[in-house]
Amino acid sequence: MEVRFDMTVRQKAVFKCLRAPRAQDFLLAIPIDGLGQHMSPVEYRTILKYRLMIPLFLVDAICPVCRKACLDSFGEHAVHCKELRAEISVKKEAPVNFLTDPSDGRSTLRPADILVFGWVGGKHACVDLTGVSPLVWLSIRGFTVGEAALKAASCKVTKHEKTCFENQHVFIPFAFDTFGFLAPEAVELLTRVQRVMNSNVMTHRSKNVVFNRIGFAIQKGLATQLVVRLPSPAM
């Protein structure tokens, strides 16, 4: 008997995201409480529901955090709610005295999310962390995995690369999406970090530990965004 399945535009996009490189890295991260590498049962169930397209919220329910927008059933508002943005769990905000906040009309100095010393040619690198949802601008015209993260990286380069260069620094946009896609600049940075680790810890297990931990941090950050908006009692 012939069986046909008709998927929505969103379902097709999510399946593409789940098949992309790095999308499943977080599943290989070893739970370690001391490193913040741990999810509660509610967080883990919630992130799996998000990835498996299982509705999380009642449609049109008011976001309990910002109290300004309505939640959508799959949690896209939670990803971009201005009251709590998804991000990598830990970051070092280092003052560099020349970056400005492009969202502010004034010339407001802002720190680099991460400052890497002596990254190339003796120059320090300003790393800017940017997390986006690949589904926000989803339409029937087509979907390309990683497009949202690549656009975010390009936007950051346009805003900050020239200023960093003029101040003898390197600029690295670390852009990723909620399903774990990493922009090329982020992959290059993590690959270099991984090589350093491999040269100091020569074990088979350390091969992809950096990517696994970053993938886990992204999913945990997203889980935090979602769980805080779940109705009580959670699930």
Describe this entry's structure for a reader.
With 235 residues, this protein is an alpha+beta fold. It has one domain. The chain has helices at 9-18, 41-51, 76-80, 147-166, 184-200, 209-227; strands at residues 114-120, 123-132, 169-177. The chain has a three-stranded mixed beta sheet with strand order 1-2-3. Helix 2 packs across helix 6 (209-227). It is globular and about 60 Å long. Residues 85-91 have low confidence and may be disordered.
Oligomeric state of shown chains: single chain
The secondary structure category is alpha+beta
Spatial strand arrangement across the major sheet: 1-2-3
Which value, in Å, is the CA radius of gyration?
19 Å
Strand portion = 5-15%
Poorly predicted runs are: 85-91
Count the domains.
Answer: 1
Number of strands: 3
User: How far apart, in Å, are the first and last alpha carbons?
Assistant: 37 Å
Major sheet, described briefly?
Answer: 3 strands, mixed
How many H/I helical runs? 6
Please give the share of residues in helix.
25-40%
Shape: globular
Protein name: Reverse transcriptase domain-containing protein
